[in-house]
Amino acid sequence: MEKPSDSKNSSISVNYFLNSAAYSGLFSLLSVILTGQVSATSSLCVGLALGVLSLFSRGSTVFIGGLIERSSTVSLTETGFGFIVFSLLLLQPAMGGFIGFLFLDLALLGLGLSLVNFALRGHIIARVKDKKSQAALFALVTMTANLGSAIGPLASNYIYKAFGQTLFVIVIVGLYVFSALLTPIVLTHHVFIRNEKSSKENTSSIVKTITDSLKSPGTVLAILAVFVGSIMNGQLFAGMALEFHSLSDSPVIRGLFYSIDAISVIALQMPVSKLISRGMANGQNATSFIIKSLGIYGISFALFACGVSSYWWICIIALVVFSIAECIYAPLINIALVEAQPDKPLVDILNYRLIIAAIGESAGSFLGGWIVPALRPAGLTAWYWCALALVGIIPAVVSNQIGKRGKRIIRR
């Protein structure tokens, strides 16, 4: 029989499911909504808005570490949900007013999303001490989150198409309000992500970590690989979302694009992970695999360029390839940065990773949200995807050739 504490820990997966469904449903249409209402001012403003949102949703918790350490996970989660709901209620007025208000509103939305995600993950780590139980719980919440990611876009696109934008926003707000009401029931109270006092010997300097990293060619390579990969990842809810919306009038097919990505990741993660483990056993490091993932991202964008003219089924193939790249890239980011700087404090590496990913995904969201609407009237968006394809494929090919040459030298 499951213990009450075990049952309460497992029930966190409900929150993960609701959050993931709301998040994926919102982001599958947000770039479309912004383009429809803001692009009259400038497609550049759409790109900047998506960049601001991505920056704050990915990296804002790095700069409020003191507040996070002093607050319980319940307080952090509820605060995050409050920011999300408040910003969504202000979204329509913000889009119709001064563009600066929109940026502030999206920054608040991003901060809320970042707080919720950080607090929920931190709650599991702080609450569940046994590593096997912790891994099992993370596996459970990851599965339910992916399920939410598969269902959210389908439901959201149907609601948006059938009932309009107002009801769509109301449903998303409702999901977040429901999650906020569940939080004090699902989460154990008085749990802190870090409740011990920080000592001087545990204090680290992310500034020093960044400075030192620029002195090592190997570290710079790892950083560049992670940065470019995060730019690729940032396309899914920006430029790709805009293309999906224009490919079909069917809300099912529009939502299916995102569902296919989520389902593909679920199906492919285990076999891809086995291939990675085999490669690492043969001496390959995490950075080399990330560079390979850039090539796979590039192939997916090349396919996407072929499909954006009207062949939505080619875009589905491109999405499956994109998912393979995600399965390689996402699990290896932390490992690559730790391998490159093994003597640095882990907390600095994790914060460093958040900063790189935040800047990279923000740049990707900005480029996709700006360039795709600008090129679409002339039917030239395929050139954008071809350019991104080259950015991914060229480093992978060069790295592969360098590796082959090195092996030949060793044999001699």
TrEMBL record:
Transmembrane segments: 12-34, 46-68, 80-100, 106-124, 136-155, 167-193, 214-232, 252-268, 289-305, 311-338, 350-370, 382-402
Main location: membrane
Keyword Transmembrane: yes
InterPro entries: MFS, MFS_trans_sf, MFS_Transporters
GO cellular component terms, A-Z: plasma membrane
Keywords: Cell membrane, Membrane, Transmembrane, Transmembrane helix, Transport
Membrane topology reported for the UniProt record: Multi-pass membrane protein
Keyword Transmembrane helix on entry: yes
Protein name: Sugar ABC transporter ATPase
Species name: Bifidobacterium adolescentis
